[in-house]
Amino acid sequence: MAGRGGQADRRGEIRVADPAVAAQGLDDAAVDLVHARLAGSSNWPQKLARPSLKLNLLRQFARSFDDPSCSLSASHPSAVPGAAMSMIDRDLRPDPGPAGTASALLTIDLAAIAENYRLLAARAGTATCAAVVKADAYGLGADRVAPVLAAAGCRHFFVAQVGEGVALRSILGPGAAIAVLNGAAPGSEAACADHDLVPVLNDRSQRDGWQGLARRRARRLPAILQVDTGMARFGFAPDEVGALLDRPDALAGLDLRLVMSHLACAGEPDSPVNAAQLSVFQAVRQRLPAVPASLAASSGIFLDPGFHFDMVRPGAALYGIAPQEGAENPMRPVIGLRARVMQTRSVPAGTPVGYGHAATVARDSRLATVAIGYADGFFRSTAGGAAWFGGARLPVVGRVSMDSLVLDVTDVAPGTLGPGALVDIVGPERDVDAVAAAAGTIGYEVLTSLGHRFHRVYLGA
């Protein structure tokens, strides 16, 4: 193995050529530990050959093997916390190749994410604007997205799981506030505290676990209290909060940073559910008047300012998803997805297409087989959707396959679209929300389902 910042040895297992290695604190022992532990598991690659392996994640991963509080196991990689697994795993996957050889190209506009954050922060007025970066920043790469949000002024981040928080802390370093929406699962409290994460307390068991750790460590620990105001998902019921706060020791040992809830119908401005939840939240907040409050996420920011309170928590809107149903989307689009044509053919009228012969062409047609399928996040239910090429709509014909789909390109001028051409799956004519609508789902699911076989290009980095 090469020394710090050196080249890979003859095995070619890790190639660390960046002189910043020493500054990152990654030494030969850490690299050797990762390789030795991963090589011992049949579920992981035997070699780490990616030059672009993120050093901070590698360092965190190596350290975590000998840190029981992180709950990682070399012999059982599935025990790796979710976001840490996804971020590390993404860097260990085979490189899909340069743009010229990839079957599909995914562009992620980091500058647009920063602009969306600033727009949402302005809309929130005096309320602090946090950022939700759970699920690997909605599938777009928290290691790239979170630093951009921090540079745009964000100081408060939300993830869903403790493992995501651990990974995010290694990305952002000290200083940023990182809250865990699902709370700390039993046994993960120590990891949560060790990485300076703030758990959302959703029930008495989570409160008890976090209080117990505070007693054992003889110090107050930060926490967020969530109230279920009408979604029946996470949080204390309002009457439970009342009973809890009637006890003088209910929050002993805890530094309550925020009281929060979540709106079920914020994307529908006229829904009476919004006002009902607001009323319940206001009543609960009267019991905790000195504690900052948060109710609005992406869609709630576009309701009346009375929903903003002290902090807003946008997620999907940061990534270009429309915050309000039926209204013009004020957010800048963030992603573009183009897939490569692999084959074209001419077929006569009456030709059946694809699995189950679910479609039959009604006219003499030209068809293009394109290298994207449901393994890449283009849902099988998207049959009836379309791609675009040079302003022309290209309908999907038949069922979407795992690795491909078929488009009707009859109306494209002959000779302009052939093998190697790129068609727009998500682009100017068809945004994420439109793709989702064609599949009978929502933009959130489209983003978080984006596959790992794309060549990713980050713009505005």
Q: Topology of this protein?
A:
Layout: H1 21-24, H2 28-39, H3 55-65, H4 82-92, E1 104-109, H5 110-123, E2 128-129, E3 131-132, H6 134-138, H7 142-151, E4 156-159, H8 162-172, E5 177-180, H9 189-194, E6 197-201, H10 204-217, E7 221-226, H11 238-245, E8 254-260, H12 272-285, E9 293-297, E10 311-313, E11 335-347, E12 352-353, E13 359-360, E14 365-370, E15 386-389, E16 392-395, E17 405-408, E18 422-426, H13 432-439, H14 443-448, E19 455-459
Parallel strand pairs: 1-19, 2-10, 3-4, 4-5, 5-6, 6-7, 7-8, 8-9, 9-10
Antiparallel strand pairs: 1-11, 11-14, 11-18, 12-13, 14-17, 15-16
Please tell me about this protein's structure.
It is built from 14 helices and 19 strands. The protein is of the alpha/beta class and 461 residues long. Helix 11 links the parallel strand 7 and strand 8. The protein is elongated and about 80 Å long.
